[in-house]
Design a protein that fits this description.
Helix content is 38%, strand content 16%. The chain is α/β, with parallel strands linked by helices and 401 residues long. It has 2 domains: 3-56 and 306-400, Alpha-Beta Complex (Aspartate Aminotransferase, domain 1); 58-304, Aspartate Aminotransferase, domain 2 (3-Layer(aba) Sandwich), CATH 3.40.640. The strands form 3 sheets. The protein has a 7-stranded mixed β-sheet with strand order 4-10-9-8-7-5-6, with helices on both faces. The chain has a 4-stranded mixed β-sheet with strand order 1-2-3-13. It has a 4-stranded antiparallel β-sheet with strand order 11-12-15-14, covered by helices on one side. It is globular, with a radius of gyration of 21 Å. The chain binds 4'-deoxy-4'-aminopyridoxal-5'-phosphate (PMP).
């Protein structure tokens, strides 16, 4: 089948809830993908940060293969021999005590919301049914009905109501608004330490530290959704570390499964995750042996700190190169981000994000447009400096063309 035939068949038989670039990938290795007609592309999106270690990292593939020969799924009706190791290692990586494993980012966020509410009723003494969670405008936490209930993206909500109550939205980066929104019913503040889908928005300095102070003083949980920002992307294990902040709960996903298996988790204290009793929450696949085996290898790689170091060093290079495009009269109006993660706003007259993405595809570089005139760069953290420079060269050529 040609690429054209694949795309036509996909359009006929799958819902049109995405608008993919017209490339059909058949193979991938490290930072490179190959399409079914043999063309090679540099991956500068990395599965929205699920592929922080690149495609098919040998250690992750070896861990998966070894586990395939042992046991792949038990459900949580039984213990299995990778589960405790995974929970212990992940809790340790986070400096926390307990883990509740799920599969996707959205499920983990749902779990965080449910956990915060239950904690609010059982521990904090919020009157039943009254719990409120404060969130930020521009957020992206996933696609479930409850999560889109507090989205500020009209497309994400269109014709999906009725919505789940119990959320208050405040402007991102505004500590005074956050402080005013936290009241006696509030059980948690849920934010992304850097807003990914919004265009890699870094909050003003002091925001995370202020949020930490306010939530601690008022006795509400600080939930950091690090599904996209966490696990090395920003040059640290967690984006919260850039302000020396430790939240009460991490929500993790994407890179936790190394791009091999879906793995997500909520990580917190024994007081918070201790609220659950058997039967109150769960997932057939959450914490399965294959997922745990791969995630254990991901955690081991993160423990060495190498990938974070690379993301920090190459990230400085990426941002200084992009900064050169953002000078007066240049093709770029703003560059945001940390580490190997950048939101790039394209100046009027240099194309929409989609157009730039398509032109980059023609030059064998794959990125994703975010809004009208923004593209996002998030290459695998294992990318070589030469490949990164080659990708940037293609971007410069497209933007100056
Ligand atoms: N939280 C954040 C911060 C995300 O960026 C995403 C995905 N882009 C999610 C949650 C949802 O993850 P998933 O697509 O695995 O449900």
């Amino acid at each position: 089948m040609s690429a054209r035939q694949h795309i036509a068949a996909a359009e006929a038989h799958s819902a049109h809830n995405y608008h993919p670039l017209p490339v059909v990938v058949a193979h991938a290795d490290g930072a490179w993908m190959t399409d079914i007609e043999g063309r090679r592309y540099l991956d500068m999106l990395a599965g929205y940060s699920a592929l922080n270690f690149g495609h098919r990292h040998p250690r992750l593939i070896a861990a998966a293969k070894a586990q395939l020969d042992q046991v792949t799924l038990t459900s949580r009706a039984f213990h299995h021999d990778r589960f405790a190791d995974f929970c212990t290692a992940l809790a340790e990586l986070c400096g926390m005590e307990m883990v509740l494993p799920m599969n996707t980012g959205a499920e983990a966020v749902e779990t965080a919301v449910k956990t915060a509410r239950k904690w609010g009723y059982r521990v904090k003494g919020v009157p039943d049914g009254q719990a409120k969670i404060v969130v930020a405008a521009g957020n992206f936490h996933g696609r479930t009905t409850t999560i889109i209930s507090f989205s500020t993206d009209p497309e994400a909500r269109l014709d999906f109501g009725p919505f789940t109550p119990g959320f208050e939205i405040v402007p991102y980066g505004d500590l005074a608004a956050l402080d005013a929104a936290v009241d006696d019913r509030t059980v948690a503040v849920l934010i992304e330490p850097i807003q990914g889908e919004a265009g890699v928005l870094v909050p003003p300095p002091g925001y995370l530290a202020g949020l930490r102070r306010i939530t601690a003083e008022r006795g509400v949980l600080f939930i950091a959704d690090e599904v996209q920002s966490g696990l090395g992307r920003t040059g640290r294990t967690f984006a919260c570390e850039h302000e020396g902040v430790v939240p009460d709960m991490y929500v993790l996903g994407k890179a936790l499964g190394g791009g091999v298996v879906p793995v997500s988790a909520v990580v917190s204290s024994a007081e918070v995750l201790g609220v659950y009793r058997p039967g109150e929450h769960g997932s057939t696949f959450g914490g399965n042996p294959l997922a745990c085996a791969v995630a254990l290898e991901v955690i081991a790689m993160l423990r060495s700190g190498e990938v974070q170091q690379r993301a920090a060093e190459l990230g400085d290079h990426l941002h200084s190169e992009l900064g050169l495009l953002a000078g007066a009269g240049g093709p770029v109006t703003a560059v945001r981000g940390r580490g190997l993660w950048a939101g790039v706003d394209i100046a009027p007259g240099h194309g929409t994000g989609r157009e730039v993405s398509e032109q980059l595809m023609d030059r064998r570089v794959l990125v994703k447009d975010t809004h009208g005139a923004t593209i996002r760069l998030a290459p695998p953290l294992v990318i070589s400096k030469e490949d990164l420079d080659w990708g940037l060269e293609q971007l410069r050529a497209v933007l100056s063309g």
